[in-house]
Specification:
The structure holds three protein chains of three kinds. Among the domains of chain A are: 58 residues, Arc Repressor Mutant, subunit A; 95 residues, Glutaredoxin, CATH 3.40.30. Chain A is built from ten helices and five strands. A five-stranded mixed β-sheet of chain A has the order 2-3-1-4-5. In chain A, α2 runs antiparallel to α3. Chain B is of the alpha/beta class. Chain B has five domains: 100 residues, Ubiquitin-like (UB roll) (Roll), CATH 3.10.20.740; 147 residues, Alpha-Beta Plaits (2-Layer Sandwich); 219 residues, 3-Layer(aba) Sandwich (Rossmann fold), CATH 3.40.50; 138 residues, Dimethylsulfoxide Reductase, domain 2; 94 residues, Beta Barrel (Barwin-like endoglucanases). Chain B contains 26 helices and 32 strands. Chain B has a six-stranded mixed β-sheet with strand order 15-14-24-23-22-16, with helices on both faces. In chain B, β8 and β9 form a beta hairpin. The longest helix of chain B has 16 residues. Chain B starts with 17 loop residues before the first strand and ends with a strand. Chain C folds into three domains: 210 residues, Rossmann fold (3-Layer(aba) Sandwich), CATH 3.40.50; 83 residues, Ubiquitin-like (UB roll), CATH 3.10.20.600; 98 residues, de novo design (two linked rop proteins) (Up-down Bundle). The longest helix of chain C is centred in the C-terminal third of the chain and has 26 residues. In chain C, a hairpin with a 5-residue loop joins β5 and β6. Chain C is of the alpha/beta class. In chain C, the strands form two sheets. Chain C has a five-stranded mixed β-sheet, covered by helices on one side. Chain C contains 17 helices and nine strands. The chains are: A alpha+beta, B alpha/beta, C alpha/beta.
């Protein structure tokens, strides 16, 4: 039985209306579906198809391409352990093994009490905090097997858990709603930056290092002239993309007719 | 939104800018913007490829077509191999393919190796084996041993096959993800019901489970799939291509003249594919063209002549006896009407036309086995006959050049699939605006990006009278007006269409539904028309025909049309009927038609299969299906499309041979026996060089009464329905659109989701669907329920009532 | 002499409630916007060109030049799209930037959109960072409320709307044309180029797509001038950048410095490698860049300089691994990542990564022959440069470079029938375990 109400339909339409082309709303719309249904459901797919005037097959194509869209019901807390190389090496593998054992679930499975869905995740852009776990897409930094077990036990016991450099954790459905573009008022919780993010800045403060003052008073004692290319061709040659053939080469190719 | 390019009716310029490139050391000049892969074909180099297809926009996904480009035309080479299917040529470009470049060869072999690692070794059980681009190119551009297997690799597997529609099966393991099928569906046919789902190595073609791939054009994906991933349920496991003989032919299901290939083995048609004809259907055909051929081998196929005995039962008879009995019966009948039907080849239609005049001395002949009008007969004789590509009639190509194409009483997606695809292409690629005078926006109209001039059935004349060279939908000399056979039931519509063409310079095209309709017009199967466009009312024309045919004279006044023939038989004014392929339920009054079959003193039926007509006939002649005879269909453009017999079947006689046999027994020989001899006569007679018949235009001033409790009934035949020529393939039938009633939102809200429609011939109860119809119009498909609208529900142009119903 | 570290983007990160508009404006935020609105759009483009700013998302294409490719006479609307899909393994600079200082990004978006004459901008943020999305959503709302966004900004007559768009989990959407596909509500598969986004990007309209850090650098360039920006960095790699250190270094984190700093200097700033351990291998710009070793500690970290050393600067994602780390294990795990993230469009990436993972798994388990390494390299050869986009190139770079520098380690796995390393020794909590 679907939980999609008229109100949800209205919100889905509102999401599509944010964009010059309504179809652009599909990714956030599917997040909204998840926030209501707990996963991507056929009703959700059909609703998006109907609102956007595209086929359900096209919506399915999108819903199955992106890993945040789940097909099986997700628990209250989607607990992810990064097992990409750096985090794995720093301990992510050990954490994941311990949690699988402790929770008695495998990858992408949910505990019997419906509280925790465990999965391994790819690099979540917090490598300086490795090993990293994500709970409902909030950072849990510098985890160990021990602290990971404590974390999931706290979650299952209903204790309030806070991200290591973010807000109090909300449920997975609530998180999906924020991703759909509906703020939940927790933005001012947590610090601006965690400790690792500040190491460079702290060092600069200690040594009174700063950027040159405005107007370019201080210069490196190398030649000032810009070493970046003046011509398009030169720019292309400099660009680190050794493979994309840019507009420039196309243009030059045409000019040589 | 970009503006449409200016359209003129100037001919496409002869000179196209060319570019000179060197491919494998051979210099060649090709039109600019030619893709390297195409240019290579011109010097005889076949670069291997999968995702590339000349009719689909390039994607460069499979990477099989990699070539080395030491000079891109600007003195610099590409450092890495390039996909030749996405790279247009440049002046002075130097290309080295696998033929001359080791880098290109290794790159291609590498890709081939990657394609094969997850490909199942299904060849022994795969339909595509023997005609498989993957097999062929693996042989020419791959290695013989599998290093993947040696390295202990494990392939990904999927359960197989799965049905993506009742007709189309998918073996996901075989799929090389070239996306030709999904691109065809999205770009060409506009039916995005198959799509790529999942990601990475698990990516696969899929459907949304509740919405199978029920597209009228789904079979084309089977043909363009470069591996055996897509197969048809009907053909799966049935034969190997090297067992098959492939005979080119022309599809017999509509007036498009689509080129097809008939693949057969030991006298049996195994499958049909699209032929390649850029001027007509490009490389696409409808699913009906592709799959609907089993009617010819249906269990009730007639195989020997029958004669009704004195005890009133039909019994087998020899051909000679049947000819004699038929001749005697017709001679003694006291006036005979001839109803050839619309499915005949032009040669057979000519035979009916000559038979009526020479053997029976009458102009009472009418091929129109469906609702008709005198206005239509006049229209055909004055405006349609003898027009063709050679003398400026609109063609498929003209649809792409038109600024606007106006459809009136014509639904291309259901009634002329090749026209639909071409109009959609024109809309997407050339900015052609499609406009339809119709009761609602059909799916086909939506897919052509068409604008609707919402018109209740019967009001088409008034709608046409509003149009001109200005206004919201201005027409000019590049425009094409396409009118359907349905307008015969809308008095004044054809006249208004002709008037609109005259005052705007737009060109007019009449698009009937059957393959033989236009040929029947050209050969004079009408009460007011003789072969070659000669008006019956023109004395000189009559003399011309009579002289050529070696008879004294022809009756001076036009004969009866089909409805009048039926009425005359029922009134006792005519005694005999000669009936070709006619289904009583298609005619304007099926009950009257059936009554006429009983009332007639003598009925001769020429048919493929047992029908109500043959069961009522006095003599039944089995006739050849299209595979058993040579012939010609004439397309809606007036383009002749000839084909040879696929089989040599001495048992199957074309209608022309049968009629010649009867005529001989009547002592009025027709002078031909073979199809070749018929053709020679047709050529000898040639087209009339005198004036066409005058057009008796009709002015319809009475608007449809949309008030009151009754509603107008709009209907047309969907591509796939209960039509008898679709018999024999249950999978095809299962992909037909369901019978629903379409109503406006207000009507649905008033009456509910199930409605009962009551007309003057019966009632139907159907699920209801909302469409942008006027409140006073209800639409039903003409033949997806019961015996069809005309038999079960309502007479043409009559009004109906709609009420809510319980299921 | 320019300082060792040059906090510009990170300067506000230790402020209380650094993400709020009030904090940002207290420190002079949105003054650059005022200045920009008083300039001609082309003058802004020139300033960015002159500054030498090169794309901070890895490719290093000169930003000002990219902006100048927008055909101003094209009748379609222009769009600015910010690529905030940070997903390259090792890269972790944009996320903390948006978390701590979303307003510098918003201000950069407004100035950049003004320069290219776009009236609609999109910030495409990967969906897996909930709090970042909250911060950027809130910053955009605050900007609207303060009149920095919306109609007639600061009375200039210029209108701009910004949409914050959450992705849904696909590394490939960091590729600019795949990002556009995702932004259009489709599967994130890269598009054929030409046409290029500058001519036909979002909704087939002229579009500039830039990395978060690139756009965030724009306000400082406008405020302090192109020469100021160009006074930092090396000859061809101008300006400052955030260097992300992670792995077996004592103080992993973000270090904002002029381009051209060396790894040796950065490790020193970060307190050296873990006590008692030495650097074994590292990536300059995330997993897609070829590995480097302790031979390369003194390579200046600028674009050309790193290319000369055999790798790429990329996103300055410096993952540092010491001698406790098994290279084969690391490379296998990265290859599994690429296989997982392969969009599936093209054969060599889709099938190639499938095969590479299987081969590397066997090698890691010590199964196979030395000739398997040659087969592996041959597969890499057939993938590199043959695929539709650069994901596959990134996939084979670790393999090729690891075999180049650590062939013996692969052979050791074969000789010993398995991995000779103890994975526990490389973990963050290795010491704990030892003591336990």
């Amino acid at each position: 039985m679907t939980l999609l109400t008229d109100e949800t339909f209205g919100e889905l339409e509102a999401i599509a209306a944010r964009y010059p082309e309504p179809r652009s709303g599909l990714l956030p719309m599917l997040h909204l579906v998840q926030s209501v249904e707990g996963r991507i459901t056929p009703e959700g797919i059909e609703a998006c198809a109907e609102i956007l005037g595209i086929s359900a097959a096209e919506v399915s194509g999108v819903a199955t391409f992106y890993t945040m869209y789940k097909r099986k019901p997700v628990g209250d807390y989607l607990v992810g352990v990064c097992t990409n190389t750096l985090c794995a090496v720093m301990g992510g593998d050990a954490i994941f093994e311990r949690l699988k054992d402790h929770l008695d679930v495998g990858n992408d499975e949910t505990t019997a009490d419906g509280k925790i869905t465990l999965e391994h995740v790819e690099c979540n852009a917090a490598c300086d905090y490795a090993p990293v776990m994500m709970v409902n897409w909030e950072f849990m930094d510098n985890m160990t097997p021990t602290s990971a077990v404590r974390l999931v036990d706290d979650l299952r016991e209903g204790k309030e858990v806070t991200s290591t450099r973010g807000p109090r954790l909300c449920t997975w459905k609530e998180a999906e709603r924020v991703l759909a573009g509906f703020p939940d008022g927790r933005v001012d919780e947590g610090p601006g930056a965690g400790a690792a993010s500040l190491v460079g800045l702290n060092l600069a403060r200690q040594n009174s290092w700063s950027a040159p003052s405005g107007g370019g008073a201080e210069r490196k004692d190398k030649s000032i002239e810009s070493g970046t290319a003046e011509t398009k061709g030169g720019a292309v040659a400099q660009a680190d993309t050794s493979r994309a053939e840019t507009e420039t080469e196309q243009e030059e190719g045409k000019k040589s007719d | 939104m970009t503006t449409a390019p200016e359209k003129t009716d100037a001919a496409v310029p002869d000179t196209v800018k060319t570019v000179s490139v060197t491919i494998d050391g051979i210099q060649v000049s090709v039109p600019e913007n030619t893709l390297v892969i195409r240019a290579a074909e011109q010097v005889g180099v076949q670069i291997p490829r999968f995702c590339d297809h000349p009719l689909l926009a390039p994607v460069g996904a499979c990477r099989q077509c990699l070539v080395d480009i030491p000079d891109a035309g600007n003195g610099r080479g590409f450092p890495k191999p390039q996909a030749s299917c996405t790279l247009p040529v440049a002046e002075g470009m130097v290309v080295n393919t696998q033929v001359t470049s080791e880098v290109a060869d290794k790159a291609q072999q590498g890709i081939m190796e990657f394609l094969l690692i997850n490909h199942p070794l299904d060849c022994p059980v795969c339909d595509k084996g023997g005609e498989c681009p993957l097999q062929n190119q693996a042989m020419s551009n791959g290695r013989g041993e599998s290093r993947f297997f040696e390295s202990g690799g494990l392939k990904r597997t999927f359960p197989k096959p799965i049905n993506i529609s009742a007709q189309v099966l998918l073996d996901r393991e075989r799929c090389v993800l070239c996306a030709r099928c999904t691109r065809f569906s999205a770009q060409i046919s506009g039916d995005p019901f198959i799509e790529l789902i999942e990601r990475g190595a698990l990516q696969q073609v899929g459907i949304y489970e509740k919405e199978p791939y029920d597209s009228y054009f789904s079979g084309n994906t089977i043909q363009i799939c470069p591996v055996g991933a897509l197969t048809s349920a009907e053909y799966r496991f049935r034969s190997r291509p090297f067992d098959l003989v492939s005979t080119p032919s022309i599809a017999e299901h509509d007036a498009c003249g689509s080129a097809i290939r008939v693949d057969h083995r030991r006298g049996k048609v195994m499958r049909r594919l699209a032929g390649n004809d850029p001027e007509v259907n490009e490389e696409w055909i409808t699913d009906k063209d592709r799959f609907a051929f089993h009617y010819a081998t249906a269990g009730d196929r007639l195989t020997y002549p029958q004669v009704r005995d004195t005890d009133g039962e039909l019994r087998p008879a020899s051909w000679t006896e049947a000819f004699a009995v038929a001749a005697r019966g017709l001679r003694e009948a006291g006036g005979v009407g001839v109803l050839p039907g619309g499915r005949l080849t032009a040669e057979d239609a000519y035979a009916y036309s000559k038979f009526a005049r020479v053997a029976l001395g009458t102009h009472d002949i009418d091929f129109r086995a469906r609702p008709l009008s005198a206005e239509e007969a006049s229209f055909l004789a004055a405006k349609v006959v003898l027009t063709g590509p050679a003398n400026g009639a609109p063609t498929y190509a003209d649809l792409e050049r038109a600024n606007r194409v106006l459809l009136v009483g014509f639904e291309p997606e259901d009634e002329a699939g090749a026209v639909f695809l071409r109009l959609r292409k024109a809309h997407l690629a050339s900015g052609t605006q499609v406009v339809s005078i119709a009761p609602h926006t059909s799916r086909g109209l939506l897919k052509m990006g068409g604008a609707l001039i919402r018109t209740a059935p019967g009001d088409e004349a008034a709608a046409l009278d509003e149009l001109g060279m200005t206004g919201e939908h201005p027409l000019d000399s590049t425009s094409v007006i396409m009118v359907g056979e349905r307008l015969a039931t809308s008095p004044g519509a054809l006249s208004s269409a002709a008037g609109l063409a005259a005052r705007t310079g737009a060109r007019l095209a009449w698009v009937p539904r059957r393959a033989g309709d236009r040929g029947a017009v050209e050969t004079g199967c009408l009460p007011n028309l003789l072969p070659g466009g000669r008006p019956v009312a023109d004395a000189q024309a009559r003399v011309d025909v009579a002289t050529t045919w070696g008879i004294d004279s022809l009756p001076e006044t036009p004969g009866r049309d089909a409805d009048q023939i039926v009425a005359a038989v029922n009134a006792g004014e005519l005694g005999g009927l000669v009936v070709g392929g006619v289904d009583p339920d298609d005619t304007a009054d099926p009950a009257a038609f059936r009554a006429a079959l009983d009332a007639a003193s003598f009925v001769v039926a020429l048919e493929l299969r047992e029908t109500d007509v043959t069961r009522a006939a006095d003599v039944v002649f089995p006739v050849a299906a299209v595979i058993d005879k040579a012939g010609m269909f004439v397309t809606w453009e007036g383009r002749p499309r000839s084909f040879d017999a696929v089989f040599t079947n001495p048992q199957a006689l074309p209608d022309s041979r049968v009629l010649a046999g009867i005529a001989e027994e009547l002592d009025r020989p027709l002078g031909f026996r073979t199809v070749g001899e018929v053709r020679a006569q047709m050529e000898d007679l040639g087209p009339w060089d005198g004036d066409r018949a005058a057009f008796d235009a009709v002015v319809n001033t009475a608007p449809t009464d949309t008030s009151g409790e009754t509603m107008a009934l709009s209907t047309w035949k969907q591509l796939l329905d209960h039509g008898s020529m679709q018999d024999g393939d249950d999978n095809l039938r299962a992909t037909a659109r369901h019978a629903v009633a379409r109503v406006s939102r207000a009507v649905l809200e008033a009456h509910g989701e199930t409605v009962t429609i009551t007309g003057d011939r019966g009632e139907w109860t159907l699920p209801a669907e909302v469409a942008d119809l006027p409140d006073g119009v209800v639409w039903v498909p003409a033949n997806n329920a019961g015996n069809g609208v005309l038999a079960d529900l309502a007479s043409p142009g009559s009004r109906v009532t709609v009420k809510g119903a319980q299921l | 002499m320019t300082s060792t570290l040059t906090p510009v983007l990170t300067d506000i990160w230790d402020a209380d409630q650094s993400w709020k508009l009030s904090t940002y404006t207290d420190r002079g935020g949105y003054a650059a916007l005022d200045k920009a609105l008083g300039m001609a759009p082309d003058a802004i483009v020139t300033a960015v060109k002159d500054s030498g700013l090169r794309g901070r998302g890895g490719a290093g294409f000169p930003t000002g030049m990219k902006w100048s490719f927008i055909p101003q006479d094209n009748p379609n609307p222009k769009y600015l799209v910010v690529n905030a899909d940070e997903s390259e393994p090792g890269t972790c600079k944009d996320i903390p930037l948006m978390m701590a200082n979303p307003h510098v990004l918003v201000e950069g978006v407004i100035i950049s959109s003004f320069a290219i004459r776009a009236n609609k901008a999109f910030i495409y943020i990967r969906g897996e960072v909930l709090h970042v999305i909250r911060r950027v959503q809130a910053a955009v709302e605050e900007a609207y409320a303060a009149g920095h966004l919306g109609k007639d900004i600061h009375g200039s007559g210029y209108d701009l709307d910004v949409v914050v768009h959450a992705g849904a989990g696909a590394y490939i959407c960091g590729e600019e044309t795949a990002l556009l596909e995702g932004l259009e509500g489709r599967r994130g598969q890269p598009r054929l180029r030409p046409p290029f986004p500058a001519v036909a990007g979002l909704y087939a309209s002229p579009t500039v797509i830039n990395n978060v850090e690139s756009i965030a650098s724009v306000p400082s360039i406008i405020e302090h001038g192109a020469e100021w920006f160009a006074s930092m960095g090396t000859e061809k790699s101008k300006g400052y950048g955030i260097f992300s250190l992670s792995g077996h270094v004592t103080r992993p984190g973000q270090y904002e410095a002029p381009l051209g700093i060396t790894l040796r200097e950065l490790i020193d700033l970060a307190g050296g490698m873990r006590e008692g351990h030495v650097l074994k291998f590292w990536t300059p710009g995330g997993s897609s860049t070829p590995l480097l070793t302790d031979e390369h500690l003194d390579v200046p970290l600028g674009f050309e300089e790193v290319v000369a050393a055999g790798s790429m600067l990329g996103t300055r994602a410096l993952q540092l691994f010491d001698e406790t780390t098994c290279v084969v294990r690391a490379v296998l795990r990265w290859t599994e990542f690429y296989k997982h993230e392969s969009c599936g469009k093209c054969t060599p990436c889709r099938e190639g990564t499938w095969w590479l993972v299987q081969m590397l798994t066997r090698l890691e388990q010590g199964v196979g022959e030395e000739s398997d390494l040659d087969l592996l390299l041959d597969q890499c050869d057939n993938i590199f440069g043959r695929s539709f986009c650069a994901l596959a190139d990134g996939a084979v770079s670790p393999i090729q470079s690891s075999i180049k520098y650590f062939r013996d380690e692969y052979l050791q796995h074969l000789a010993e029938g398995g991995c000779p390393f103890d994975p526990m020794k490389s973990t963050l909590f290795a010491d704990e375990l030892e003591m336990a």
